[in-house]
Structure prediction request, 273 residues.
Amino acid sequence: MPIFRLLRPAAAIRADAHRRSAAEETGAPALRVASWNIHKCVGTDGQFDPGRVTAVIAELDAELVALQEVDRRFGRRTALLDARRLAQETGLVPLPVSDLPDGMGWHGNAILVRPGTTWRLQRLHLPGAEPRGAVVAELDLPGGRGPLRVVAAHFGLLRRCRTRQAAAVVAAVARGRDMPTLMMGDLNEWRLDRQRSALRGLEPVFRGVAAGVPSFPSRRPFLPLDRILGCARAPVLAVEAHDTPLARTASDHLPLKALVRLPATVPALASAA
Prediction:
């Protein structure tokens, strides 16, 4: 796969330098990440409002964001968020995962990154009774923090389908090179009992699969449908729901946010390829 680089403005450079300074106090690089099912920009009040979705993403102050349901569901799968406004208000840009010039997602999945990120992409069809997919992105993070593989996914509603989809993700990761890996998305699994969870199949790669933070429904969350999962080389230090008045209204899911510890020294993606 070709390697691409996004140019970054001075403001993003200053923000990344501040984060690196704070992370160095803990002894290892850290990355603030988030995941959110934006419900096609339709809020709990029934109103379609991409602007407030963008405002919530700005609230998250994350360097890497996975979004679900970012495109129209029927007809031409065009993006529901304005990429230019998104960049202006959040400092993040979407990776080009869509087939369409005016699309943003692959089966609704999008990944937002800081300008200056180098990336390689794979789009993964997930098995199941309904069309589902995942985006696998191998990133070189700005600031020389080395590579990170990110899997952004939206699993199906049926348990047997989620079981097969988890296996497909693990197989895709196994086909790639060895590198720190993070998985984020709406995995539609509410069971915290490890023996009953359809996500058990993710355990060969990811940690904390059985744990979950309630994120749905956003006004009174009690189901842990969304996940941010790290591996042994990229552990997730903490996960919490982003529970603000705007987030409770903007979508039927609350965003999840977390801090991920990165390896202190990892060869860059381009040099290792």
